[in-house]
Design a protein that fits this description.
transmembrane helix; membrane; cell membrane; 52% helix; alpha+beta; DUF421; CRO Repressor; UPF0702_alpha/beta_dom_sf; two-stranded parallel ribbon; 6 strands
C-alpha cells in the first residue's frame, strides 16, 4: 500500500517555511551568480576551457543543491525555476535603468594584425587565447585581421583586410580611439 503522506512529504510537497527558504536562497545565489558573470563572464564565454567548464559545472551543482535545501522536492524545484524566471525578467527590465556597476563593453583586442595588450589585460585573455579564438573564427593570417573586438557575450567581431566598420557600431567599444580612420566608415 502506498503511504501518500510519505510521498507528499519526501518527494512532492514543501512547507511554507521551506518555500520561503528556497525563494530567499534562489534570489541570493542568482544575484551572486549574475555578479560573477558580470565580472568574469566574457572571458569564460570567449575562451571556454576544461577548467572553466568544470568551474561552471561545480557552480551549477552547488547552486542547485543550495537552492533546493536539505530535502529537494518537486514543488521546491518548481519554486526555484519560477523564482529564476522572475529574477531574469526583473534583471532584464533593470538593465534599461542606470546601473551602480559599470557595464561591460565590447573591447578592442587587435588592430592591424597586432594584439592590443591593454584590451587583452582588461578582459583577462592571453595572446595564446586570442590566437585560439582567431583560428576558430577562420582567421588564417594575422595581417588579415585588421580589427578584432571581443563582444560582451564572448563572441568576436573580426574586420578583415579591405573591409570597414561603421562608426556608429563602435560607439560603445572600449579602445575605439585607437582604431585607425581607414577602418571606419559612415
Amino acid at each position: 500500500m502506498i503511504d501518500w503522506d510519505i510521498v507528499w512529504r519526501d518527494y512532492i510537497g514543501i512547507s511554507w517555511s521551506g518555500a520561503l527558504g528556497v525563494v530567499a536562497s534562489t534570489i541570493v545565489l542568482y544575484l551572486f551568480f549574475a555578479l560573477l558573470m558580470h565580472l568574469s563572464g566574457p572571458r569564460l564565454m570567449a575562451n571556454p576551457t576544461v577548467g572553466s567548464f568544470a568551474v561552471l559545472a561545480v557552480i551549477g551543482g552547488v547552486t542547485a543543491r543550495a537552492t533546493l535545501g536539505e530535502a529537494p522536492t518537486m514543488l521546491g524545484a518548481l519554486i526555484v525555476l519560477n523564482t529564476l524566471m522572475v529574477m531574469e525578467y526583473l534583471l532584464g527590465t533593470m538593465r534599461k535603468l542606470p546601473h551602480p556597476l559599470p557595464r561591460r563593453r565590447p573591447t578592442v583586442l587587435m588592430i592591424g594584425g597586432r594584439p592590443v595588450s591593454s584590451g587583452l589585460h582588461r578582459v583577462h585573455l592571453s595572446q595564446r587565447n586570442l590566437w585560439d579564438l582567431l583560428r576558430s573564427h577562420g582567421v588564417l593570417d594575422l595581417d588579415d585581421a585588421e580589427l578584432v573586438i571581443l563582444e560582451t557575450r564572448g563572441d568576436l567581431t573580426v574586420v578583415r583586410h579591405g573591409s570597414t566598420i561603421d562608426r556608429s557600431l563602435i560607439a560603445e567599444v572600449e579602445g575605439r580611439e585607437a582604431i585607425p580612420e581607414h577602418l571606419l566608415s559612415g
